[in-house]
Amino acid sequence: MADKNPEKGYVALLGWSLGAIDAAERFDRRYVVVAPDWAEPYCQEHGIPYVPWNFERLNDRSMEIAEKLKAMGVDAAIPLFEETVEWAGAINAVIQGNPRLHGQAILFRDKALMKRRAQLGGIRVGIFEEAHDRGDIIRFLKRVNQTLLKLDGDPNDPIHIKAFDKAGCLGHRVVRTADDIDAIPDDEFPVLMESHLDGWEFAVEAWIHNGKVQFLNISEYVTLGYSVFVPASPELEAWRPRVEQEIEKLIKTFDIENGFIHPEYFVTSDGTMYFGEVAYRPPGFKVFELLERAYGFNAYQGLIVCFDPKSTDEEVAAFFPEEVVDATGYAGCFGVYPRQRVVSDLAIPEETENHPYFESHELTAPLESKVTKRTAFGTHWGLVYFVGDDPGTMRDLLKRQEELDFYV
Amino acid sequence: MSDPTAAVPENAGGTDAAAAEVDRLGGMVDRALTRLEQTSAFAKLTARGPLLDISGRLLARPGGAAALYARAAQIEASGVFMGTDWDHPEILQPSLATGTLAHGDRPTVTLELLSELRLLAVAQRELFHPRLSSEQAQHFLSQLLALNLNRLFGPPGEAERGKEVITTATRHVVGFVADYIGYGEILARLSTEIERILAQRPIMVDDVKVMVTRIAACLHDPDISPGGVGLGAARLVSALFGPTAGCREDPGLDVYKDRLAVLDDSSLQQEARAFARAMHDTGLVSPYHPVFLRHSTALERGDLVGQALGLSSTGTEAFSCYASLVYSLIDTAITPDTTQAVYGLALLLERGLLFDPAIAPALWGHIGLKPSATVERTLAAAFGDRQPAATLLLAGTISVLGQPLGIGQGNNPTCQAARALSMWALAAPDYLLHLLTRAARDDDIVMVFEGGRLSSSTLAAGLAPTPPIDVDPVSVVLVPHLDRIYIEMGRLCAGRAGDPHAWVNSAMHGWWVGQDTALVVDLATGHLADSADRFVRLFHGLYHPLYNGNKPVTHPQPAGIAVTDSLGRFIGWHAISILRVGLGPQGDMRVFFFNPNYDGGQDWGHGVIVSTDGNGERFGESSLPFEQFAARLYLFHYDACEEGRSDAVPADTVEMVLAMVRATWAADKMPEPEA
């Protein structure tokens, strides 16, 4: 455990992430984990500072946790998961005496509100609408395709369906036909519908302190939902100046002072950048691990240093490396989905295992033969990590993994 | 060895490319080690994945084991073992490690292999471990190698795709460790281990035979040249594969049979004596032995049969009184597939069992017994169908009667049933034969409990979900019935105040089980009883010759033991029987008992090591000094009228026993202090 500096801020981590706790434990700031009570025995056994809290919908008791953290002297609450973003906003509103922070968090939680706010801020977004039933989706699909001047019988351009308040790819479906619409279960409504944008999709991670971007990473998706690597290839990095402008707009529009955002963008073939969505929490797909591998800094500690209102500009500047040039290589990962209908064993393909870029994997063998299914995006069985010097090789390698069987 | 590259030092034998690959992976391991070392203690368990993954691949490369061995200190320091059993190397068991290597998933096997390399560094005094001496490490590794000889010398097993990396890695590590420990040491260690098991004379010796076969393969492999394997290993191999001049070179059963036809009389007598010597020496019976016995029986050469069984005057007397019965037993039951029954037959005769008026007629009955279709199927499932079920069962019956203490429970939760079988084989063999007839013929046994008839065929399954198949034929047939009846008796006692054993044990086992029951656990709370002091005194007053008026134990008495692991931690309750109490060769008072576990030699922690050989034990007995036994005992039976001078037991002795109890199995069973 690192020595804690009482002059620096005291942070609360909302949600249970061992990686984040480990980072905080080894950092120079006091911290406390706020997590459901099932975490208590573990925290007691390992001496992890802990406050029990069950994150359900905000309710009458919500002030309790905010007051408690305030009384403890906590300076900032850091959300680790989508489900704790709103909580962090509410808590920070209380402990930092800034009621706007809660409203801001609600924008991050509701994808429809988020897009409206972005539109108001002059940020370019695709066509989107809320749907409350299947009829709404049919109408939207028709209208989008009419707009595209399609004739009856032409294959439809797809639309995207997303849950309002779930992280990343959870609940994400691509809809082309009426059959696709029928396959959506009732309990997924209401949903957000978006037109499909053909283009290059990528994500950005931005650490913000005192309203300024301190570190901006561009994560290059090779295939959405399958693979990502950092830093991005020179072709994508060429967009960095434009990306920086867009992020500045986001910071202004959403009025962000301290923290971390994780937006997604499209660049269409004509060079227009569209805003997809933004999250106020660490990204999935272990991008933080990839950043640590490529740059050597701990991205969770980066969160803490940015969220901490007591951090000085000098300290923040010294904490982060310089984007791209300080990276020692390209770090990527691939999310494995079983390709066969029935799988009984884990078998890392030889060409993967013997590739010089291959580093390690976190796949586990199935305990019994399993019939696989894949609904929506985002339920991969584990990640495979690669590190190497050449972004082209990395991209081809990650693409190639999609054709290999990791489960047989 | 089969893979000459496995133990070649790094960079010496492989190509430059291979060496570069080892260096590259080594660099990745270093990074993963550093990362893991920095990780907080509580997160290590989830953060060790990359290290295990990369290490597994490195170990599968020639030179990889050496590369990781060189990092043994960093591996230990990284905390990769934290939060797992491997963090306590002093409690690791070679047999469990062997199971892990064979069946574990890849990360677990890799962790096990890293632990082996670390232990090697401890054994070589290159790494200091606060909880493990280099001798202990050496001991562990020798046993591990003995158990994994097949990985050293045998061909690779059916390596499944996807497991190639880890099986190769395992072979490399085992080979690497073997190069340090030395092959001669391994074989010597293995034969010592086998001799320790055989000293308990188990009925089931299939595993032992597998190990002896492995040794035999090594002895004949010129590549191994195990200089000084020792006579022990050679003796075991010859007992199994060539115990006599006529079969010295393991010619095959048919050839040997032809040879017998032309041997002269003195040669036949030499053969007979050599068979007997090898058998009584080791407890192992060669498949050639039944060939010889059947040959002699066909000739009605009683003298050769008696010599081949190695009979003393008692056995010879029994044989000559019941010669036609013995011939019939040999003819029906003794085949090259049921070799161990030869040993059982010899001991049955030596016990003078045939002089019991009920036994000879009962055995005649068993010779003609036709097992039910169910029993036939069960026996075929357990032992194959090369011999008829009737033959397998009769052979098993002979073994059980000859070796009552050779019965084991196998890997089944049926210690009570195994104990009952052993007890009857010893004290009521006629009753055992009676039960066996019913079970084998009718698929049903009936016992009377407090006036009510319990019929096993109408009862639900007992503790064992499936019938045991890794035990002797008599157990295979009888244990499911006994198991059910035992559980049913317990069920009938549910709700009574007091321990059910008080009623069940005497009803189940026989009249000789004491009618009173002493228990040192408070049933309501599960805590150590307040009367623990009285319990210890009572045990002395009834069983200790200096306090019970020097009365010997006449019949095996069922008793309950709190079994502890090698650190003295409570594992579970276990059924044993007390056989006798007497002075050991060192002049200490010892309890000799029967433990239905296959291997009675167990380390129960805090210096309590159950002895099976060298402290006055007869074959199959376990023993402990009286006080140590008392400190693991939690239940026994007695008749109150037999109590001796319990009050005369010195308070020091009682307190010493209770201190051992409190420090081990009752550590978490202490009564709450009164408020």
Task: Describe, in plain words, how this protein is organized in 3D.
The complex is a heterodimer of chains A (408) and B (675). Chain A has 408 residues and is an alpha+beta fold. Helix content of chain A is 34%, strand content 24%. Chain A has 15 helices and 18 strands. Chain A has an eight-stranded antiparallel sheet. In chain A, strands 3-2-1-4 form a four-stranded parallel sheet. The longest helix of chain A has 15 residues, at 240-254. Chain A is globular, with a radius of gyration of 22 Å. Chain A starts with 9 loop residues before the first strand and ends in a 7-residue tail after the last helix. Chain B has 675 residues and is α+β, with helices and mostly antiparallel strands. Chain B folds into four domains: 16-181, no CATH class; 192-241, no CATH class; 246-491, no CATH class; 516-663, no CATH class. Chain B is built from 30 helices and eight strands. Chain B has helices spanning 16-38, 44-47, 49-59, 64-69, 72-78, 94-103, 106-123, 134-147, 149-153, 164-181, 183-198, 206-219, 231-241, 253-262, 265-282, 288-298, 302-309, 313-321, 323-333, 340-350, 359-367, 373-383, 389-402, 415-427, 429-442, 473-492, 501-509, 532-543, 626-630, 651-663; strands at 446-449, 452-455, 516-519, 557-564, 570-583, 589-594, 622-625, 633-638. Chain B has a six-stranded antiparallel sheet with strand order 3-8-4-5-6-7, sandwiched between helices. In chain B, β5 and β6 form a beta hairpin. In chain B, α1 (16-38) runs parallel beside α5 (72-78) and α11 (183-198) runs antiparallel to α12. The radius of gyration of chain B is 28 Å and the shape is globular. Mean pLDDT of chain B is 88; it is low at 1-14 and 157-162. Chain A: Keywords: ATP-binding, Ligase, Nucleotide-binding. Chain A: This is Carboxylate--amine ligase. Chain A: Residues 115-308 form the ATP-grasp domain. Chain A: GO terms for molecular function: ATP binding; ligase activity; metal ion binding. Chain A: InterPro entries: ATP-grasp.
